Amino acid sequence: MSSTHNNTEGSEPFTIRIGTRRSPLALKQVDLVIAELQKVHKDITFEVCPIATMGDRDKTTPLPELGKGLWTNELEAQLGAKQVDFVVHCCKDMPTTLPEGCQLGCIMEREDPRDVVIFKKAHGDKYEKLGDLPQGAVVGTSSVRRAAQLRRNYPGLVFRDVRGNIDTRLRKVDDEEYDCIILAAAGLLRMGLGGRIAQYLDSSTEGGGMLHAVGQGALALEVREGDEKVLGILKTLEDTPTMMACFAERSLMRTLEGGCSVPVACETKWVEEESDEGTKKKLRIRALVVSLDGSEAVEGERIEEVASLAQADSLGKRLAQELVERGAQKILDAINQVRAGPGAVKVGDA
Ligand SMILES: NCc1[nH]cc(CCC(=O)O)c1CC(=O)O
């Protein structure tokens, strides 16, 4: 008689295959996910299946020309073909509408969602913040969202593209003609590179704030639609407040983009609000749609009680509609017009 190993699943040990990009950050993120899963599911074997996506292979074509899903399409194809059981994504890199047959299984607790400034090593401790930089200083970023917001507050700075993985970008700021670069805190912190962070940017930054990208700092796990077995396994990793915040952000983006990626920035925070009935936790979402050159912007904010993903969705949608009514459409139309014309304009987030 064969003995059956008694495990938490109540069945034979089995293997789960995980789809991921193969960048050092992506692999680190998968390690973090597996470490969390392994705590609960001791007898499951997790196998990492890294591949290069279009965004990894093509490092020169402007991002929008590569189309939507440049970081995700190949991974979702593998998921659909059952070559992998779930995919680990940066939530920020996922299009707001998923392909048929795919489902956002869960979103994990968020790392710091803010953007940060990293100065060239050779500058030593000469600069502490963006405002310390002289006229004409060069800021590396390929994100129109970042450049457009910073242009508004720091008109003297010059913006240049910088693409590549985190290590490549850090090498470029140190060795090439950049004075600083802007990156997401989350990637640096996960890679143990937080020591390079000189300044955190958010809506309240003195001298000029910045809102982050939709989904920035959160990891999202994508599964085949209705795959209850895998959904059940991943459920233990869900951070519901983060998931609700990201749903609000993604709904905002989905409502605004109308088929084309646009420079939309946001910031969500769970805040306590006092009322006659006592204190209540509410979700505050701030958002900004900005023209490519930073000359025009429409900003807004809403605070609502959110107790479900559907309510998070409608919060994001309402804020988007409010921004459109207050003039965001004019900015979006202008961007879409340039996008449709000859010559590429980058509006994806890098
Ligand atoms: N495609 C770039 C990308 N996608 C997600 C992150 C950061 C990590 C995160 O937001 O979870 C980055 C790098 C960056 O913006 O600095």
From TrEMBL:
In which family does this protein belong, per the annotation? Belongs to the HMBS family.
Domain Porphobilinogen deaminase C-terminal, by residue range, is: 244-324
Which EC class does it fall in?
transferase
Q: Which cofactor does it need?
A: dipyrromethane
Transferase as a keyword? Answer: yes
Positions of transmembrane segments: none
Kindly state which reaction or reactions the protein catalyses: 4 porphobilinogen + H2O = hydroxymethylbilane + 4 NH4(+)
Tell me the InterPro entries matching this sequence. HemC, Porphobilin_deaminase_cofac_BS, Porphobilin_deaminase_N, Porphobilinogen_deaminase_C, Porphobilinogen_deaminase_C_sf
Record's CDD domains?
A: PBP2_HuPBGD_like
Query: Annotated pathway, please?
Result: Porphyrin-containing compound metabolism; protoporphyrin-IX biosynthesis; coproporphyrinogen-III from 5-aminolevulinate: step 2/4
As recorded in UniProt, its EC number(s) are 2.5.1.61
Tell me what organism the protein belongs to. Answer: Podospora aff. communis PSN243
The protein's matches in NCBIfam families, at most eight in alphabetical order, are given as:
hemC
GO cellular component term of the entry, any = cytoplasm
Question: What name does UniProt use for this protein?
Answer: Porphobilinogen deaminase
